[in-house]
Amino acid sequence: MNRILIEQNPWWEDKNAITQDKDIHNYMNANVRFSLPAFTPKKGVHIIRGPRQVGKTTLAKNLIMEKLSTGKPEGVFYFSAESGYPIDDAIREYLDFSESGNRCMIIDEATEDAKWATKIKYLVDAGKISDKDLLIITGSSSIDLKQGGERLPGRFVEGNEQIFYPYSFRDCSHCTEKQTGILDFDIASAKKLYVGETLRKAFITYVRNGGLPPVWNIDRELSRERYARWVEGLMARHGKSQRYAKEIIARLGEKTTFDFLGISNETSIKSHHTVESYLSFFEAGLLGKLIYNYSLSSNSPDMKKEKKFIFLDPFFTEALSSRMEESKIIEDIVGSHLLRICDNLHFYRDKKGEVDFLCEISGELMPVEVKWQNNINASDAVHLKKFKRGFLVTKDTLAVFGNVVAVPAFVFLAIIGQTMVKRRVL
Q1: pLDDT (tens digit, 9 = 90+) per residue, 201-235?
Q2: ∠ CA 310-315-320 to the nearest 5 degrees?
C-alpha cells in the first residue's frame, strides 16, 4: 500500500493514534473551542461543502474518533486529496485492503483532484463502493464540489449534502437558551437573554471576528493572509481578476441595493455581464448570497429589479481588503443567519419603502428589518405592518409594536442561530 495512505491512517497500526492527530489536538487545545455540529451519518455518499477553515476536517476527524471507538480500525479510511495522490487509486488500494460493507471512507478536500467526481462515480457504478458503505466528501472549493456532486448517482447522494457555514453567533457565544425558528420565536427566551452584559459583549467580538475558528485562536493578520491567499487561488483557478473582485466588493460595501449595470459604470469593469459572473462566483464559492426583490403580485422574486448581496461572514470582506460600514456588517450577519433557516431569502421594496429581508419559510413570508440605531419607536416598524407579523432587529431595543417584535441583534441571533444545514438555497 502507498506510504501516503499509511501515514494518513495511523490508527491501522495503533487505534489510539487518532488522539495525537494534529487537527484533533488543535481542536481540543484551542483557546476558544466551538462545539462541532451534530453529524452522525450511517451509510451512503455525503457531501460537506463550506468555506476554508470553517472546521470541515476537524468534523471529519471527530467522526473517525467515534467510529474507532465502536469498530475495527481497518474499517475507517481517511484520505486528503491535498497529498496529490490520485483519489481513485487511493480508494482502490483501501478497498483491496479492507473487508467489504460498513466501511467509513472520508475524502477530504476532494476538489484538489479535478476529476474527483468522475472517479468516485465510476467506483460507485462499478459496485466497488456499496450502499452499505459510508463515503464522506469534503471540499473548500465549493464551486467544484457543487458541480461534482451534481454528477454523482442520485440514489446515493440525494438529501445528503450539507453546508457547513461559518459558526453562528449562537455557537460562538455558547448560548444554552432554547433554540427556535422565526415562526415560533419565543419572546420569553428573548427577555431572559436581554438581561446582563455577557451576550452583548460576545456579540461585539462576533461582529469583529465572525465565525471562522482560526480567527479566534491564532494571529488575526496571519488568518487574514491565509484566507486571502486561498480566495486568490480560487479566483486564479477560475480565471477571475483580483482587481475586478476587489472593485466589486468595495461597491457592495457601500450599497444597500444595486444592479449589475450600475456597478459596471462605477468600476473599471466594462460589462455588466462580467459583474454578474463575479457575483455568481462569490455565491457559488459560499462567500456570499445574491438575493432578489420579492414581488407580492406574482409571489416570486423579480430577477430584473435591483439586487442585494450579503456576505456570509464579516471576515471575508476583511480578507479581501475591503471595509464596510458597521450597519452593513450587521445587516449581512443577520442575513447570513436567516439564510440558514429559510427555504428562500429575499428582500422587499415598493414605492413606500424597503424591508431588508423577506424570509420564505413553510409557506409563510416573514419580514425582518434591521435598524442598527440607538432610538427605536413604532414608526420604524410601519413598513412591516402590511405583513401578518414581522421582526425589527435592533441595536439594544426589546419591544412589541402591534404585530412586530423589536429585538436586539444579539438576542435574535442567539435564539435562531444554526451552523450546518442540509443544502437548500445555495
Answers
A1: 999 999 999 999 989 988 788 888 888 888 888 88
A2: 85
